[in-house]
Amino acid sequence: MRTLLENATLVDCVQPRAVERAAVLIEGGRIREIRTDGTTPDGGASGGGDTTVIDLRGACLMPGLWDVHIHPDYYAVDDMPLADQVTLFGHRLQAALTESGIVGLRCAGSHSYMDVAWKRAFDSDQHVGPRLFAAGHFLTTTGGHFLTSGHALECNGPYGFVKAIREQMKNGVDHIKLNLSGGIMGPAWDRHQNSFLLQDELKAAFEICHLREFKVMAHATNPEAVKNAIRLGAHSVEHGYIMDDECIELFLAHDTWYVPTLAISHLTPHQATNHWELGWVERRNLAPDLCCRADAASDVHRMWFEKALKAGVRMALGSDIRPLKEAALLELGLWVRDGATPWQALVAATRNGAAVCGMGAELGTVEVGKLADLIVVDGNPLDDIENVRRLQLVLKEGVIVSDKRKR
Which of 8, 9, 59, 167 sits in a 20 to 30 Å window from 240, CA-based? Predict the structure, then answer.
């Protein structure tokens, strides 16, 4: 079975331009041919054989989006039984794919290995959903970051961390999430300017991950934590709310990924700038003290985001907020508001997102030979990043999993 997408405006996320009157042939779940000269591969126009022809009527064809820092919603078992929480997480993962075109998600912490369960369900085709990369619990110290989430596992001492990491590996995670420091969203003693792990704890945690060839996703929110993460070999640094020039130099020297999660410090009633942000802020109803902490951190966060972007640090888009079907779209808008071009934001949410998850050779761009995880939107996101919201089609390995054209 073959599918031909013709009369497309192609944004392939390889070159920073849109190509009109493009045609893409998909066969066996992969992109077999791309034409940008106005012609179509065999089977175009009148169809014929076993080729399904879809006329996109000039709509924009591009890679699906990635959000590489997500969590399930935070519920205590007393508030919602575990089975219901797992089911709700799966529903929201699927909604991210079908409602917003998020084809890949990297989890930054969940309890009870619900992310592992849904990863297996999607990979085995039991359910249609995005590609999911699982972290299991995030690991922190006693008195560490965001203990109220339910996703944290408290560890103490070098071998406490080693044992917990081995447990994570045994339960099927893809990467290890380490919380090296505090955060903006937490109780009074959970502050992003403070680091939480001792040097021997850090070294032991990173050493076992390297021995077992597991990537470390490092929550690091101040210069000391960021530099420790990079020097010890983190695959990615999350947040980086406060940094310094040496942090930027280390990012470049070690080729470490940076996932800035702007939404955490930017989405407050005082900072919302459009109706999507205002609607999210109203529904989130964040406590006033947390809004104050976010507002106080936003300018410094923005400054280091801009410096990293201008320096050429490798960066990918992660939201750290919910619901998942809105999160990446809001984060894209914040990237552009903070100085990224639509092209830079789009690459962060497509090509770089796939690369962070080790899937850059297979996904993230529209190129011959790659898997056909694609979306079609009504409007060029290089002109206005918010055009990614005007979703028409979502394809996973060339199969349409969401069709909003009639709507």
Answer: 167
